[in-house]
Design goal:
Structural class: mainly beta
Low-confidence stretches: none
Number of strands: 11
Shape: globular
Strand content: over 45%
Number of helices: 0
Order of helices and strands: EEEEEEEEEEE
Distance between the termini: 40 Å
Radius of gyration: 13 Å
Helix content: under 10%
């Protein structure tokens, strides 16, 4: 009965910002690893960021630009995306797994439906 629902995607110009949200049901986000992945057309699903307890980890391509965080009261995880680039264009997925930082999509057991992020040049 775990459900993850992403929101906040949209169209933004290069250099702009978006804040993605992942609202979770059936699982307490503070007790599990929460991750963000993205998949561009014709490409594999790649790791973006993860949070587990007090630890965070980011793909090199987004370090310094993206920030993952939680609001435990809302049972929601966020991805603040700044200084967006056209190469950030993708469907962004929220996912969850047992505690521990893992960057491979196959290790996550539940996924949201995805939200489209399009960055224009």
């Amino acid at each position: 009965q775990v459900q993850l629902v992403e929101s906040g995607g949209g169209l933004v110009q290069a250099g702009g910002s978006l804040r993605l949200s992942c609202a979770a049901s059936g699982r307490t986000v503070s007790s599990y690893t929460m991750g963000w992945f993205r998949q561009a057309p014709g490409k594999e699903r790649n790791f973006v960021a993860a949070i587990s307890g007090g630890s965070t980890y980011y793909a090199d391509s987004v370090k310094g630009r993206f920030t993952i965080s939680r609001n435990n009261a809302k049972n929601t995880v966020y991805l603040q995306m700044n200084s967006l680039k056209p190469e950030d264009t993708a469907v962004y997925y929220c996912a969850t797994r047992a505690r521990g930082i893992v960057t491979t999509a196959g290790e996550y057991d539940y996924w949201g439906q995805g939200t489209q992020v399009t960055v224009s040049s």
